[in-house]
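Working notes for the structural subgroup meeting. M.R. asked for a predicted model of this chain before we commit to crystallization trials. I am recording the input and output together here so anyone reviewing the notebook later can reproduce the run.

Input as submitted:
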Amino acid sequence: MIYLVLILGFLLRLISINQSLWLDEATTALVAKMPIYDFFTKFMPGDFHPPFYYLVIRGWWLVVGGSEIALRIPSVLFGILTIYVVYLIAKELKQKWPIVPALFLATSGLHIYYSQEARMYVLATFLVTLAVYFYIVKKWKLFAIILPIIFLTDYLSLLIFPVLYLYKRSKKLLLASIPFFITFLAWLPYLSKQLVAGMSIEDSSWWNILGPVTLKNVALIPTKFMIGRVNIDNKFIYALVIVAISIIFTFIIGKAKNKLIWSWFGLSLVLGILISFFVPTLTYFRYLFILPAFYLLLSEKASPYFIVIILVINLVASGRYLFNSKFKREDWREVASAIGNQKVIFPVDSQKEALTYYGKEKNIISIDELLLGDKEVWLSRYVWDIFDPTDSTRIRLLNMGYNMISEENYNGVVIQKYESRN
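Returned structure, recorded in token form:
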């Protein structure tokens, strides 16, 4: 049965995998090609993530290439491995049907989405799940290897360490943590630079996007765990659906008794909320590493009737994402096609990675580089309210004698076409 579940999970993760890269995935792609010296000296000090995933993708790129599908295949594989480890954990915990949490994760809309993304979150989820498994079966040497890799993959996922320590203090756990502490000290100079760079945006609108503590950000975590990244246009109906599903899930999960899995899920989330009062981390995808715990809790006492209900919810939500273009990623590939050989203005010197990946680096200009002979030009409106809150670039364009003749929206990437009046 587990092999059938793994095959199902693999097939679901291949559907719609050939989407356009969105901005952060394009960053992954460009970093993978960057010289190692530049990676550590120019990129890492200003990024918010540790280096391990980028180095994995760099090695993968050298062997397989850098197409959209190629860049996402490692996440697909890490997602499938996570499903299998969840099955192993359920067996160790003597769950009645250990296949059930594996099946839940295999059909999870949120896990499918991020198993198709060239970012580090599914790898971190796999490593955390593996660490919990090694902890349960007391494979301390393997645990000692995994813990520093988690730290070098995704900082927030390291919350699993204090969670496990608070659950049950152990001399063996502390000894197995020595490699992590050594790794932490070695990486501390880079981490300090990243924290300084991250805290420097505290007064900007970008801070709110990263995930400060708000009721909405807290509520989105269980909501997205239940239905993935889909929604319903009618807000009233959407709210009713979420409330109904929440009642079902709360009833089922409330029966779970395993304290270790509850600590993995609940304590990790509480610690994350506390951290977010100082450094914003409260965006749901950053907590993907507790999703396996969520399904282990749901499956612990679920009856066959409720198992079917959860599977139906998963499949409906996953199907909406996989077969509805509305829920796909930002379509920078189509943006590049629409621009063609024309120029495109970006208000600031950032957010260009996707168009650079799609070969439009030479088409990107600033407003100061616009030539009077350019009859038509495109203007990027992507997150302009953050980087150009006074809308100065558009205003300057109008004052230079250009009128907007069209506006296109490619799954959240808005570009406007302007024509000179002269």
